[in-house]
């Protein structure tokens, strides 16, 4: 656990970057610092490994005051990932990942073996190991940055906008993999971002900071969306809070209807028969995974991928209400496609059933939530 | 032209005391000692300035100021001041090496300083954040990353020194400058032209050797895409400094933020 106790940072020119921050980042969880620029989120992060020294207050790791520790030793025990990767351009990928183990005096072979294992773990082919950072894409570099931070298996990771320099598609992918990795590793992570969507997606708890480095609200993402503490937090969270909040509500009891489908390659006659008078028919591939919708009446030749309407999103059974609702709304047939964990078709849901479930489900509001008093 | 080839291809001119081989050897020794001393002064200073960020203004002013000094004039002053206190050949050798060192320091200093200064701040930040000590950051990150620019500074300095070491002959020392001086005195234009040609060839050959060394020592990760981007930016910054030495030194285009390629020294 990392605890901030009344931590401030005032720069020599009088600017207050962090103004009396008190919070805890629980062990094994992701705590996200989010806020507009100038809210001191990066400063707060960098004070944990003493890249910046606090003006006053105490930051403790598992009860030990970091101010009493040797900064170099402290940093070697904390994974550190920064925005642009910060890879060493003169070292190969595997050498980059080996940095901290070698600083800790590991045997070179052991360090190399660990590094290779980590490259695979973060989704990089080990054939990239001998390349140099400038031969990799931004997303790949960022994965190397994560692998490098994990190399000595530190219990704590500090991540400063690690995914903000890559394009949105890659970012989404990196976020998903990051969550998968964290599921396996269970690190204590402090993550800084300016992107509230990223904060809500990744955080076990989210600390919203306001300019001047004070805490506006500390809450789990669903509570944050359901019950913003004040106008600042509400504004910062932005629109569609109700809809986005559904991402945290699961739908175990959703009414799933069986859906007739045909495989790719079905003839127009087969398709018409299967549709049984409905306008849209779902098409699956040989593994039973939905690939898109067709209109059987307009079909003149066997179903191929080129004919498919691909507007519909696919939701996982037992996933969030948001995904189920979106699947229903985006489907041309207005029937949202649900799949199992292996991606095979389970059935479909309609928007009205999802809405019924939303209304029936527990209201996501949290009057008992711990509110943080604002210190002006 | 004929006189040049006659002089150059006459075996009698190559061997023996005062022959071409001996002059080349002397020239290389003067140049080598000079670049060595200049590097010992300029590289640590450049590393310190680049690492700490202190004294940048000093570098720019020092480098440009020294460049404005006329080397030959400086040589005569140095001989006049230092000569009487020394005996024998040293009375001329030491002043000559001194002025050449003064000539060689600016490009090496500028190259080293800007090399360290230009290290990607995020790489430096990551290095410290992962628990490297300041010494480790300098040794394992800043110096290796600065090597391309350090090298181009050394190459640029070496070219200038080889070209300018001919002035040693003005104060009765050896080196290839002898052929220029003696040729002029005896109106032997073949000898003069031959000497000049040898200086140019020597400069190119030494630069090739240094380029090979650079290739061996500098990480391949620092060349290719990244480097070209830097060079393009560098050319925009240092456009007015497209210098005479640049003709033979491809590396000299790199050391840019303080323009390294000054005009050729006045004496040649």
Folded structure, characterized:
Chain A is α/β, with parallel strands linked by helices. Chain A has two domains: 2-77 and 155-248, Rossmann fold (3-Layer(aba) Sandwich), CATH 3.40.50.300; 261-360, CBS-domain. In chain A, 32% of the residues lie in helices and 23% in strands. In chain A, strands 6-7-8-3-9-10 form a six-stranded mixed β-sheet, sandwiched between helices. In chain A, helix 5 crosses helix 6 (138-150) and helix 13 runs antiparallel to helix 14. Residues 364-376 of chain A have low confidence and may be disordered. Chain B has 268 residues and is mostly helical. Chain B is elongated. Chain B starts with a helix and ends in a 31-residue tail after the last helix. Chain A binds chain B through residues 49, 51, 72-77, 80, 82-92, 99-100, 103, 132-135, 145, 148-149, 158, and chain B through 120, 122-123, 125-133, 136, 140-141, 144-145, 147, 218-222, 224-226.
Structural class of chain A, by secondary structure, is alpha/beta
CATH topology of chain B: MetI-like fold
The percentage of residues in β strands of chain B lies in under 5%
Which two chains form the greatest contact, residue counts included? A-B, 31 and 26 residues
Number of DSSP-assigned strands of chain A: 16
Oligomer state of the chains in this structure: heterodimer
Number of domains of chain B: 1
Give start-end ranges of low-pLDDT stretches of chain A.
364-376
Terminal CA distance of chain B: 20 Å
Query: What is the helix fraction of residues of chain A, given as a range?
Result: 25-40%
Radius of gyration of chain B: 20 Å
CATH class of chain B equals Mainly Alpha
Question: Which structural class is indicated by helix and strand composition of chain B?
Answer: mainly alpha
């Amino acid at each position: 656990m990392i605890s901030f106790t009344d931590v401030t940072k005032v720069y020599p020119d009088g600017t207050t970057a962090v103004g009396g921050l008190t919070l805890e980042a629980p062990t094994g969880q992701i705590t996200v610092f989010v806020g507009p620029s100038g809210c001191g989120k990066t400063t707060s992060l960098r004070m944990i490994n003493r890249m910046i020294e606090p003006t006053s207050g105490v930051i403790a790791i598992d009860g030990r005051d970091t101010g009493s520790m040797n900064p170099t030793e402290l940093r070697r025990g904390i994974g550190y990932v920064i925005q642009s990767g910060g890879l060493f351009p003169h070292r190969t990928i595997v050498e980059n990942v080996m940095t901290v183990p070698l600083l800790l005096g590991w045997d070179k072979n052991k360090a190399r073996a660990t590094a290779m294992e980590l490259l695979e773990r973060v989704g990089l082919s080990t054939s990239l190991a001998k390349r140099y950072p400038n031969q990799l894409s931004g997303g790949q570099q960022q994965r190397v940055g994560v692998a490098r931070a994990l190399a000595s298996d530190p219990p704590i990771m500090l991540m400063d906008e690690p995914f903000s320099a890559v394009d949105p598609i890659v970012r989404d992918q990196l976020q998903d993999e990051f969550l998968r990795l964290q599921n396996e590793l269970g690190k204590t992570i402090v993550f800084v971002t300016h992107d509230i969507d990223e904060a809500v997606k990744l955080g076990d708890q989210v600390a919203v900071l306001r300019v001047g480095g004070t805490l506006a609200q500390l809450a789990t993402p669903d509570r944050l969306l359901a019950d913003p503490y004040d106008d600042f937090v509400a504004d910062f969270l932005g629109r569609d809070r109700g809809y986005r909040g559904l991402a945290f509500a699961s739908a175990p009891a959703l009414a799933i209807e069986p859906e007739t489908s045909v495989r790719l390659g079905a003839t127009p006659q087969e398709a018409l028969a299967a549709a049984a008078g409905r306008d849209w028919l779902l098409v699956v591939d040989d593994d039973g995974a939905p690939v898109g919708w067709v209109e059987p009446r307009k079909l003149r030749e066997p179903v191929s991928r080129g004919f498919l309407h691909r507007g519909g999103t696919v939701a996982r059974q037992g996933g969030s209400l948001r995904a189920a609702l979106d699947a229903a709304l985006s489907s041309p047939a207005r029937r949202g496609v649900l799949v199992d964990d292996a991606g095979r078709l389970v059935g479909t849901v309609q928007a009205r059933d999802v809405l019924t479930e939303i209304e029936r489900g527990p209201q996501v509001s949290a009057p008992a939530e711990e509110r943080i008093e604002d210190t002006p | 032209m004929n006189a040049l080839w006659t002089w150059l291809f006459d075996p009698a001119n190559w061997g023996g005391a005062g022959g071409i081989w001996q002059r080349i050897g002397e020239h290389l020794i003067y140049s080598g000692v000079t670049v060595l001393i200049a590097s010992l002064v300029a590289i640590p200073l450049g590393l310190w300035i680049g690492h700490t960020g202190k004294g940048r203004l000093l570098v720019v002013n020092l480098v440009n100021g020294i460049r404005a000094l006329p080397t030959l004039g400086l040589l005569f002053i140095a001989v006049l001041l230092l000569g009487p206190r020394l005996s024998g050949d040293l009375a001329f050798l030491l002043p000559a090496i001194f002025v050449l060192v003064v000539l060689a320091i600016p490009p090496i200093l500028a190259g080293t300083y800007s090399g360290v200064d230009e290290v990607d701040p995020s790489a430096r930040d990551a290095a410290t954040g992962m628990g490297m000590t300041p010494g480790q950051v300098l040794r394992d990150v800043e110096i290796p990353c600065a090597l391309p620019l350090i090298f181009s500074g050394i190459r640029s300095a070496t070219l200038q020194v080889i070209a300018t070491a001919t002035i040693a002959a003005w104060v009765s020392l050896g080196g290839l400058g002898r052929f220029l001086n003696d040729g002029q005195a005896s109106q032997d234009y073949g000898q003069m032209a031959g000497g000049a040609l040898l200086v140019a060839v020597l400069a190119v050959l030494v630069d090739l050797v240094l380029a090979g060394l650079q290739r061996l020592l500098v990480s391949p990760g620092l060349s290719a895409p990244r480097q070209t981007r830097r060079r393009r930016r560098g050319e925009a910054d240092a456009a007015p400094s497209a210098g005479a030495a640049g003709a033979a030194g491809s590396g000299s285009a790199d050391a840019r933020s303080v323009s390294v390629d000054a005009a050729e020294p006045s004496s040649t």
